[in-house]
């Protein structure tokens, strides 16, 4: 064998040590330097102004009108349904027509729950009164029968257990009338209340109940039930579970307080069918210098089976699509790839997001930033972000480029069902921050229609989303991150 010469040996050794010192340099990307990076962010001021102008003037109303066509054509798109798959086919075709790169889908196995016909009505004291309701996702039905039983109203799990000890819950329909002051606790009431939706049937079954009705987890109601996911524990009987309006939950609490017996009839055809293949949608603007490195922007394309799924989460998916459209219209191609993903089956357990993570986590070092919009597109104020202090400093600097539209705020805690696995593995993650106090007025209800959204607000959200995605993707260095 030819012996390596000393100069060649030293060169190879030096390269090897550099590789040990910084994997970033070996991958072809610049090592991170805060001063250099902040200057590069500032140098993107004109790019940010161009993007804002394109989103709010030249392409005014573009994302809203596109979403209007989509939601009016396909409506609700629940996991496992033909309607969802038809909607996916449509979007893929539109992305291909628009000329994006690497447009394709990736399969994911998803649950298939079907609501069927359902009703609740009062027998006494208001004979024949319909009780507006929506079965909760994953609930069983009433097995072809009409359940008829006395109802008992409780405010909490603790009250349920106390009433069970008094033998007051056996054979009853438990009505949960949990309360939270949404005005005082707008950011925490959902988390404080949603446990009743998810676990209420289990606790009631342990107490001997035959069915449950949950006060809708909502900040406001005009006699509107709000659906959502629930789960069954393996060691308890599966009983039918539905949500009812705030108004009816309060009415039955008043009836009970007056000592009036409440008798209800309940019928549900809900059933779970075998798992079905669905698809995540992917499209890209490929990076000019680091095509393998990715800034991910996305929202979920599925929805519940009520309303139109416009706010949750058609608008989030479509402002992510708009990022690619705006950049293509302006001929702007960043150094890194910006990848659009529309996840399937977020509502029914995040199956699409989990599939995508499991498929691509082997390349996790190439994911620079993951962004998910899933809280509506109301007036944007900035970004929510999860990452290192150094990465936060960079993101805050990017936010200052959005001063012309008053969207400079950076709030700690970005995330979402479809990107939380990435964030947990150390990838910086972001979600748009908006004045979304009305989000839980319409969430998971028949009221989630296009009319909830505002074209101007959607344009502004598109601008915020596009500026962050483009600037981060165009920096010489990736955002710093912690090892996990």
Labels describing this entry:
484 residues, alpha/beta, eight-stranded mixed sheet, 15 helices, 23% strand, elongated
Structure description:
The chain is an alpha/beta fold. It has 15 helices and 16 strands. It has an 8-stranded mixed sheet with strand order 1-10-12-11-13-16-14-15. Helix 5 (62-74) packs across helix 15. The longest helix is centred in the middle third of the chain and has 21 residues, at 310-330. The protein is elongated, with a radius of gyration of 26 Å. The two termini are 43 Å apart. 50% of the residues are buried. Residues 1-27 have low confidence and may be disordered.
Task: Quote the beta fraction.
Answer: 15-25%
Structural class: alpha/beta
Task: Profile the largest sheet.
Answer: 8 strands, mixed
Q: Please, what is the average pLDDT?
A: 94
Spatial strand sequence of the major β-sheet: 1-10-12-11-13-16-14-15
Model regions low in confidence, pLDDT < 50 over at least 5 residues: 1-27
Roughly how many Å is the radius of gyration? 26 Å
The CA-CA distance between the termini, in Å, is 43 Å
Estimate the helix proportion, in percent: 25-40%
């Amino acid at each position: 064998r030819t012996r390596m010469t000393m100069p060649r040996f030293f060169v190879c050794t030096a390269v090897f040590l550099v590789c040990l010192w910084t994997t970033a340099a070996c991958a072809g990307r610049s090592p991170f330097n805060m001063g250099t990076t902040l200057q590069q962010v500032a140098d993107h001021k004109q790019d940010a102004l161009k993007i804002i102008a394109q989103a709010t003037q030249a392409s005014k109303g573009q994302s809203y009108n596109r979403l209007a066509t989509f939601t009016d054509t396909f409506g609700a798109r629940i996991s496992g349904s033909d309607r969802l798959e038809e909607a996916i086919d449509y979007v893929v075709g539109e992305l291909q027509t628009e000329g994006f790169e690497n447009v394709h889908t990736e399969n994911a196995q998803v649950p298939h729950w079907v609501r069927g016909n359902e009703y609740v009505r009062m027998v006494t004291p208001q004979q024949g009164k319909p009780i507006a309701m929506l079965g909760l996702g994953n609930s069983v039905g009433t097995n072809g029968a009409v359940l008829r039983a006395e109802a008992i109203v409780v405010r909490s799990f603790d009250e349920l257990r106390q009433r069970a000890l008094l033998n007051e819950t056996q054979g009853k329909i438990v009505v949960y009338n949990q309360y939270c002051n949404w005005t005082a606790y707008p950011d925490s009431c959902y988390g404080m209340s949603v446990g009743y939706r998810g676990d209420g049937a289990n606790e009631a079954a342990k107490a001997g109940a035959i069915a449950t009705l949950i006060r809708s987890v909502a900040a406001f109601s005009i006699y509107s039930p709000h659906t959502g996911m629930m789960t069954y524990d393996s060691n308890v009987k599966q009983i039918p579970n539905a949500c009812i309006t705030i108004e009816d939950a309060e009415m039955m609490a008043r009836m009970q307080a007056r000592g009036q017996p409440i008798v209800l009839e309940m019928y549900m055809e809900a059933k779970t069918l075998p798992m079905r293949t669905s698809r995540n949608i992917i499209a890209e603007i490929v990076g000019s210098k680091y095509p393998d490195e990715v800034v991910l922007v996305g929202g979920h394309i599925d929805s519940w089976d009520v309303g139109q799924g416009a706010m949750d989460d058609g608008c989030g998916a479509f402002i992510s699509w708009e990022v690619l459209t705006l950049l293509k219209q302006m001929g702007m191609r960043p150094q890194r790839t910006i990848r659009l993903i529309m996840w399937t089956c977020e509502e029914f357990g995040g199956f699409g997001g989990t599939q995508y993570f499991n498929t691509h986590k082997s390349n996790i070092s190439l994911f620079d930033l993951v962004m998910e919009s899933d809280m509506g597109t109301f007036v944007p104020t900035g970004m929510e972000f999860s990452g290192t202090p150094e990465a936060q400093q960079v993101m805050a600097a990017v936010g200052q480029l959005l001063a012309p539209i008053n969207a400079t705020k950076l709030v700690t805690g970005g995330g979402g069902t479809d990107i939380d696995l990435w964030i947990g593995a150390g990838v910086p993650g972001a979600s748009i921050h908006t004045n979304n106090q009305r989000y839980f007025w319409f969430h998971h209800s028949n009221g989630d229609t296009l009319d909830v959204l505002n074209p101007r607000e959607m344009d502004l959200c598109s601008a915020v989303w596009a500026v962050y995605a483009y600037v981060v993707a165009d920096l010489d260095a990736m955002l710093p991150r912690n090892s996990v």
